[in-house]
Please model this.
Amino acid sequence: MAFFRKLLDRFRNYLDSLEGEEDKSHKTSDNTLRVIKTARNLEAMNNSIKKGFKLVVKEVEQTDKFKSKYKLAQYKKTNEIMQFGDYRASNDRDYNTLIDWTSYNPAVFENPYAAYIIPKDLKKGERVLLEDLIEHYVSGTWNQGDVFRLSRSEAIWNGKDFDVDVSSYAMGDIIG
Model:
């Protein structure tokens, strides 16, 4: 169950990052760390600059190391279409397969660049929460073949960039 809670958390983090609320980078998370937002397009970057924030602009590397599997099926009784991510979840007698098991890379972003939005008063050595990581780190693997990307992490500001603490939010390896 903890695995699915972490997946739900990843999905919520992703949806939050799409809201474009870069001016909330001074707000704190539940654990009192300041939250650093990420701008993933020019409009968000320029809006942040106009509001007085500094940016750490980075290239978003292309990678194929992350993969998630899915199967799309239609429930025979109601015609509802369902997506499965666990080999054990679909009972073929109750479902018609629309797309059989396949993998895709969920770590694909619209632009090849992004920027962390840095508050003016961020102190060197301050620990923060990077809400939407630009860099690609592995959060964990599942013995069914999935490799998950770390979407958020704690980090320490070194004055020019962040030293990411991968272990702060990594899921680790999952067997199931």
